[in-house]
Each structure stands twice: as C-alpha cells, then as structure tokens.
Write a structure and sequence with these properties.
It is a multi-pass membrane protein. Strands 6-9-10-3-11-12 form a six-stranded mixed sheet. A four-stranded antiparallel sheet has the order 2-1-4-5, with no helix packed on it. A two-stranded antiparallel sheet has the order 7-8. It contains 23 helices and twelve strands. It is elongated. It has two domains: 6-319, ABC transporter type 1, transmembrane domain (ABC transporter transmembrane region fold), CATH 1.20.1560.10; 342-586, P-loop containing nucleotide triphosphate hydrolases (Rossmann fold), CATH 3.40.50. Helix content is 64%, strand content 11%. Helix 4 (61-107) runs antiparallel to helix 7, helix 8 (162-209) packs parallel to helix 12 (292-319) and helix 10 (220-273) packs antiparallel against helix 12 (292-319). It is an alpha/beta fold. Bound molecules: adenosine-5'-triphosphate. Adenosine-5'-triphosphate (ATP) binds next to helix 13.
Length: 587
C-alpha cells in the first residue's frame, strides 16, 4: 500500500478545519495573549527591581504589583478561553472525518475489502482519528503558539540585553539539529506502531467472529500465543519510541538549563562591571525560565505532530482508495414494463492485477420469472458470476443486462432496487429482526416486513421470538439457527420486491431438517422473481427450471436437469461430486 508523505497528509486536513477556523484562530490568539502576559511579567519585575527597589522608593510599587496580578489573571483567563473554544471544533472535525471514512468504506468495491484487513480499517476510523482530534485541540495550537512564544521571548531578551539573547540563541541552536535527526526515526517508529495496532485489532476481531471455530478446534491457546507475540512486538516498538523520546527530552531539558547557567555567569559579570542592572539580569533569567515550557514541550509536540501526521496519512490511504464501481455519467432508465430478464453476453472477468481470467465468455439468457441454477466445480467462478449482476464487481469484458440495459448504464440505486442478493453466509447485524429485514430496501413498513417474512417462511419463528419483530438478534445473528438466519436473509432479499434475485448457495451448510425449511422458503421466494442460484447440492438444483454448468470460464451446458443428465457427461460428472447422491436428484 502506498504511503502518503506525512506532512502532506496533515495539510490535506485543511478543508476540515475551514468551517471551524474562526474558533481555532481565536483559541490560538487566546493562548498567544496568555503567553505575552507571561512574558511581560519579567519586564515589570525589571521595573520593580531597577526602580522602587534600587531607589528605595515605595511610591509606584502598588501599581506595579497590581500590573503583575492583572497580567497573571489575564494569562489564566486566556488559557481557560482556549480550552473552552477548542473542544467543539476538534470533536466536530473528528466526527465529520469519521462519517466520511465510513461512507467511503461503503462505496469502496468488494475487491478493496478483500485486500484490506478489517482491523486496519477499524484502527484508522477509531484510534487514528482520536489522535488527530488531540492534535487539533492541543498539540497543533501549541506547536504554533510555542514557536511564536520562543521568538517573542528571544526578542524580549535581545531588548533587555543583547548578550542575554545571544547566549540563549547559542544554547537553543543544537535543539534544531537534534530535533531534525530525531524526527525521521520517530516517524518510522510511529508508523510501525500504528500499523501494529491495526494488526492487533484484526486478530481480536477475527478471533471474536471465529470464536466457535477456535473453541471447536481448541485453537484458542494457540491464537492467544500469537496475539501475545504481536502485542510484545507492539510493546517493543512503543519502548523504542520512548527511548528515542527520552534522549530528545534529555537534550531539550539540559540545553535551556545550560543557557540559564551561562546567562547567570555572563549576567553577573555584567552586573559586577556595571554593564547590566540587577533588574535586567533577574528579568532575563525569569524570561529564560518562562521559555522552558515552550522549549521543553518541543519534543513532546514533535512526537504528537508525528503521530498525527502518521494518523492522517493512514486515514488518507483509505480515503484515496478508488471507488471503481460508480453511477454512470449518463444513466439510462430501466423500462417501466421491465419483467426482470437477465442476460450474460460474452462475460469475461479477471481480478485486478491477475492475468488469470476466471470467466472467459459466459453466455446465459435468464427468461423473466425463470430460475437458473449454476453448477460447477469449486473455484470455477460461480460466486464471481453472481456478483456481476448487482455490480459488486464489474465485468472486464462482455456485458450483463437487465431488461436489455447494461447494468453499468444504470444508477446503482436503480439497479439494486430491482436486483437483490443473498449470500452463502447470511450476515445479520446486531439490530432488531425488523431492522435486519428492512435493510433490504428503503422506507419499508411493518406490513411489508411481515409479508417478506411470510414469503421466506420466517414469520412463524419470528413471532415465537420473545419480542417478535423487535427482538434484537446478536452480532452476525449467532443466537439464531442456521436455517433461521438463512430465512431472514431471504426475507431481506425479497422485502424490496426485486424482479431479479441472485442467491449464492443459500442451502449450503444446513442440516437436513433446516434445509427442508429453507427449501420451502426458497420455492415460495423463487416463484415471484427471475433468479440465478448457485447450487452446491442437488436439492438446490431441484428448485431450478434450468441448470447451467460452468466449466473453464464458460457455460459448458445449459438445459433442464433431465436434459443435461441425458446429454452431458460433464454434468453427470459434476453432479456426482455434489453433496448428495445424483440418484436422489434424478428421482
Ligand atoms: N482477489 C482475487 N484475486 C485473484 N483470484 C481470486 C480472487 N478472489 C478469488 N479468486 C479466485 O477466483 C476463482 C473463482 O472464485 P469463486 O468464489 O467465484 O468460485 P466458486 O465457483 O464460487 O467456488 P466455490 O464453489 O468453492 O464457492 C477461484 O479460483 C478463486 O481462487
């Protein structure tokens, strides 16, 4: 995966900052004001020491003391204002960026999701964005303000006595060199640690989703060991970061201390020979002491900036991923009297970056209302072919049409309102039964949900659930049986009353009893639509009007089951490899 240069990644956040720039600028100005107040206090101190104290006159003293108190109060107030002002914008930016990456993930093609680990996406949408929020609210502002304060402080020192300014400058110069040396090393470590967090999130997610497999095979301890090893790697990276930061901090803290010592040495000599007043020396040392926070914080601020830049780069890597399946520039309309005829015409398909064509000229003509079962050896491309109808992937040659219109010429929303799909693995979301079914179409009424459940033979078991339609089903619907989940997935597929249904092996992995229930549901569902059904079992083949045999990227035979049994040796061979006995099918 290409890595976006980190600082460019940070700059690209500007459009998100734009709507709230007013408040961000005001909060920056507030911090600057508080810093200016802090830097003015030593100047008043100089006036007190060289004026009333040196001359032993107490007259102007109260006013000068009040000035110090007011400056201190304004400094504190401005800090408070910054904190108040910055909270809203930074959380707003985080929320917007999070919503945008989520929306983008929905648009990205399946091929993207096949390539990317879910934990990497999770860490980018959650922890990287929190890092960015912290940067915008705090480190980003202080990076600018502290740099200005350092420049201003230096100017004050030069104003007080050039020698004090020069000493501070000489002591600060090595910091620039050390910081640049450290920056690139720290950036590499930061990137590594943030990627490792993503890898860890992937392991946690996969092991939670696959907990049944892991338990059944007793692989929990093995995975726990692997996880611990990855966690140790992350710890190693974090320790390397801390060691590097410790070195930088050491240098950053030592250099200003040396500066203050040098100021005291040369300043005292100056006072002794009369070239400096005591007030100037005390004010100079106070300014240098005040500059310690802006100086000390540089290491931490650079670390935060690095972290934020890496987080931004990781964010943009996902946002820059190309949405390859989009609405056409000039969309066509489906005919109003469309009946759901589907044609595959010379369809070819190869995965991006792969030379191997999985489909190399598939022709199938699905007549309106007909069910065609697709059989073929494992890996022959059956699932791939089904994905081309609702454009989960696009053909690389030929075309797929619905009612005579190339699916690529239709708006995605229009296409997906007439074509519905159910998959081998019926994914259910942690939401109510109603929400899970209504996911299949927009603005669905309860009556429509019930009708879909009836068609999918699911109404009875849903009514037996503790809260009926409102029952929340667990993540991935794990609390339901396989057959119940399949029937809910079928209800979701039919709720929008599609004209075309594409089913990727809906009877796989079901026991005999459950299979019969889902088969009944399927018969009822298929009677109303044109359907392409991937079949791994003779029982699924039985549901079809015709069967197409996919072999070596082409349709090797197509016809009714009985015709093919008589005429196609390849079909008979294929059936003998299916899960049930061919004899059972023939009956
Ligand atoms: N991202 C990818 N890049 C390259 N090849 C891929 C990719 N994804 C899948 N394939 C290959 O595409 C081929 C077709 O896969 P597909 O899932 O369509 O087969 P299938 O007939 O549905 O198999 P099964 O019956 O086992 O479900 C397989 O050989 C698979 O290895």
């Amino acid at each position: 995966m290409d890595q976006t240069p980190t600082m460019t990644a940070l700059r690209r956040l500007l459009p998100y900052l734009k709507p709230v720039r007013g408040r961000l600028i005001v909060s920056g100005v507030a911090v600057l004001c508080s810093m200016i107040c802090g830097l003015t206090i030593p100047l008043v101190l100089q006036q007190i020491l060289d004026g009333p104290v040196a001359r032993k006159e107490t007259g102007p003293l109260p006013w000068l003391i009040i000035a110090v108190a007011v400056l201190g109060a304004v400094e504190a107030l401005m800090f408070y204002v910054r904190r108040k002002l910055v909270a809203g914008p930074s959380t707003l930016i985080e929320a917007r960026m999070r919503a945008d990456i989520f929306a983008h993930l929905q648009r990205l093609p399946i091929s993207f999701h096949d390539r990317w680990q879910s934990g990497q996406l999770l860490s980018r949408a959650v922890s990287d964005l929190s890092t960015l929020r912290r940067f915008i609210a705090f480190a980003g502002i202080f990076l600018i303000v502290n740099t200005l304060t350092l420049a201003l402080g230096l100017a004050v020192l030069f104003f007080l006595a050039p020698v004090l300014g020069v000493i501070t400058l000489i002591c600060a110069a090595p910091l620039v060199f050390i910081s640049t040396q450290y920056e690139s090393k720290y950036a590499t470590l930061t990137r590594r640690s943030q990627d490792q967090v993503g890898d860890l999130a992937t392991v946690v997610e996969e092991s939670v989703l696959g907990i049944r497999v892991l338990k059944a095979f007793g692989r929990g301890p093995h995975l726990a060991k692997r996880f611990a090893a990855q966690a140790r790697e992350l710890r190693g990276t974090e320790l390397a970061k801390i060691r590097l930061l410790a070195l930088l901090w050491g240098a950053i803290i030592m250099l200003p201390e040396l500066g203050i010592a040098a100021q005291l040495l040369f300043g005292s000599l100056g006072v002794a020979n009369g070239s400096l007043t005591v007030g100037t020396l005390v004010a100079g040392v106070t300014v240098a002491t005040y500059l310690r926070w802006p100086t000390d914080s540089i290491g931490w601020l650079l670390a935060e900036t690095n972290q934020a830049a890496t987080a931004a780069a990781r964010y943009w890597e996902v946002r820059d991923a190309e949405v390859t399946i989009t609405d056409p520039l000039r969309p066509e309309e489906l005919p109003a009297d469309g009946v759901g005829a589907v044609r595959f015409e010379g369809v070819r398909f190869a995965h991006a970056g792969s030379d191997r064509e999985i489909l190399s000229g598939v022709d199938i003509d699905l007549r309106p209302g007909e069910t065609v079962a697709l059989v073929g050896s494992t890996g022959s491309g059956k699932s791939t072919l089904t994905m081309l109808v609702p454009r989960l992937a696009d053909v690389t040659g030929g075309r797929v049409t619905v009612d005579g219109v190339d699916v690529r010429d239709l708006r995605l929303a229009d296409l997906r309102s007439v074509v519905a799909m159910a998959f081998e693995e019926p994914v259910l979301f942690s939401a109510s039964v109603r929400e899970n079914v209504a996911l299949g179409a927009e603005d669905v009424t309860d009556e429509q949900v019930r009708e879909a459940l009836r068609v999918a033979q699911a109404e009875e078991f849903v009514d037996r659930l503790p809260w009926g339609l409102d029952t929340r089903i667990g993540e991935e619907g794990l609390s339901l049986s396989g057959g119940q989940r399949q029937r809910l997935a079928l209800a979701r597929a039919v709720v929008g009353k599609p004209k075309v249904l594409v089913l990727d092996d809906p009877l796989s992995a079901l026991d005999v009893h459950t299979e019969a229930e889902v088969e009944r549901a399927l018969r009822s569902v298929l009677s109303t639509v044109t359907a392409l059904v991937v079949a791994h079992r003779p029982s699924t083949v039985r549901l079809a009007d015709r069967v197409a045999l996919l072999d070596e990227g082409r349709i090797a035979a197509i016809g009714t089951h009985e015709q093919l049994l008589k005429t196609s040796a390849a079909y008979r061979d294929q059936l003998s490899t299916l899960d049930d006995e061919p004899a059972e099918v023939a009956s």
